[in-house]
Amino acid sequence: MSYFTEILADSGDGFRALDVDVRDANDLDDLVDMMRSAAGDDGEAVAVIEHEDEWFGLVRLCGNNEVKVFLSDLAAVEASPFAEIFADFLDSRPDAYDAEPEEDFGAAEEEDAAAEDDDEDEVEMLEFDADSEWGGDADIYSDRGVPAAMLIDQVESYRSDPARVVAHVGETVGFADQLEAAR
User: Fold this and answer.
1) Is 143 within a domain?
2) Whole-prediction pTM
3) Looking at the record, which segments are called Disordered (predicted)?
4) Using alpha carbons only, how large is the chain's radius of gyration in Å?
5) Does residue 128 form part of some domain?
6) Is residue 28 part of a domain?
7) E strand or H helix at 126, and its extent?
8) Which residues have CB under 8 Å from 89's CB, separation 6+?
9) Phi, psi at residue 69, to the nearest 5°?
10) CB–CB of 130/76 below 8 Å?
11) The dihedral formed by the CA atoms of 128, 153, 98 and 137, expressed in degrees to the nearest 10
């Protein structure tokens, strides 16, 4: 599987692809510096990194120099050559939704063997799948029409097609055509 990377700058008249190689960045600061120098002092830019059929990352440099990062699959990013760039985000965990309340494990002692088997099945269903955990700023483009809940829903619905999610974000924000042309 191959990687696709692109940096797009918003020139006010729309986004344009920049002649910058994301692979040259050693860490997030390097990537942001590359984005800033290519986009100009007041410009906005987005770096897109995709690993086909597995994960994507979006890095947004806002006009006020705020940096937002969204990663669709933390475990996959951690195993990728881009792990160093996103090192600060790999231990971030989604906090947009409240965790399930803790179960009362004392009640299980009173259940018969059949009920305990049902509980074991239930526990298996609730096992955490770290491979499908997103991280970073789900509200990365909430001010441009992609609310956090919508982005998370897209990631969860189209986990095996990260390009589809990136295309959806690009359509809404306005960089889809330039991103597709860069492919």
Assistant:
1) yes
2) 0.76
3) 97-121
4) 20
5) no
6) yes
7) helix 113-126
8) 69, 71, 74, 77, 135, 136
9) -130, 135
10) no
11) 100
C-alpha to C-alpha distance for 161 and 133, rounded to whole angstroms: 15
Contacts by residues 102-110 (CB-CB < 8 Å, ≥ 24 positions apart): none
Q: Which residues pair with 60 in a beta bridge?
A: 46, 68
CB of 169 closer than 8 Å to CB of 46: no
Contact indicator for 17, 35 with CB cutoff of 8 Å? no
Host domain of residue 47: 3-94+134-182
Region for residue 16 given its phi and psi (left: phi exceeds 0; alpha: psi -120 to 50; beta: otherwise): beta
The single-letter code of the amino acid at 142 is S
Query: Is residue 101 assigned to a domain?
Result: no
Using alpha carbons, select from 12, 55, 56, 59 the residue that is nearest to residue 35: 59
Q: Which amino acid is at 60?
A: R
Amino acid symbol at 112 = D
Measured CA to CA, the distance from residue 122 to residue 162 in angstroms comes to: 30
DSSP structural state of residue 178 = H
Full pLDDT tens readout for the chain, 183 residues: 588 899 998 877 788 888 788 888 999 999 999 888 877 766 789 999 998 779 999 999 988 889 999 999 998 998 899 999 998 877 655 554 433 333 443 444 444 444 445 444 444 333 334 446 898 999 999 999 999 999 999 999 888 888 899 999 999 998 888 888 887
Residues 58, 85 contacting (CB under 8 angstroms): no
